[in-house]
Amino acid sequence: MSDTQKRRKPPKNDDGRMPLADHLRELRYRLLVSVAALLVTTVVGWLIHDWLIHQLTGPLCNLKGVHGIGQPTAECRNGVLYNDGPLAGLSLSFKISMMAGFVLAAPVWSYQLWAFVAPGLYKKEKKYGLGFVLAAVPLFAGGAFLAYAIFPKAMQILLSFNPGNFATAMQGSAFLDFFLRMVLVFGLSFEIPLLLVLLNFLGVVSSQRLRGWWRIAIFAIFVFSAIATPTGDPLTMTVLAVPICVLYLLAVLVATVHDKARERRRQVEDPDHYLDDDQASTLDTTPSDLSAEGIGIPEPVNASELAAAEPMVYHPDDVT
Fold this sequence. Notes:
It contains 12 helices and 2 strands; from the N terminus they run αααβαααβαααααα. The chain has a two-stranded parallel ribbon with strand order 1-2. Keywords: Cell membrane, Membrane, Protein transport, Translocation, Transmembrane, Transmembrane helix, Transport.
């Protein structure tokens, strides 16, 4: 390995500690790798951005009963989408390419983030953190897919409020921002039950408390869904709230199983851990191994040796 590579990726101690300057070099190295991966995947996103635009705008452009200000085309039959200005199309294509690059580079930048943080964590924290990351990815993907599936119906509900004597027009960048906001809200909302499970595993929240909060939690989930959804209609709110409620109940179940397993381990290690200070603990009547405690045990005496030994005679003068 050359001197340049050694400076680029500084070595770490076994316990993960290093000086502040080495931490900064480590951070710089992780950022450079992540940025390089983003640049490569953004180029890939640029090559497929036409297909991505068609997948994103297809549900909106195929809505019936919606009439835009633009001319109907084969790609957008109702003409509801438009770009304003000579650079609007380039800006929209670049945003979509970067969005695709960010998603495609997720394995690289997420690993670089984990590699930077993991050396400073304990073994238990590493185990929980890695499990959290592995579970967070499919949950976010499930929320994003649900947002994409419900997006056409949500747009149809919103555009139905437009009076019949008015045309509908939506700028391309505004449409993309609205779609991304909806995907982020659905994806991050699916992470809330996972956060509760992580807090339970760390001992911050007990399963008993989570079970006691279920009424308040369901009400809070519906209120959060009503505020967080970009559309604000009851259908989208319900579609977001119901899966989160199911995930919350699953989180309570996982926390309950974990607390019971932890209670059984504590019972084996210390049967009297639940006693108060003024209660008597259980007496340990198990015989102790004296040799293990360092107490010498005399060896048995041979009868023949005892008979051959001279008898001991005591004189009064020897007694003081």
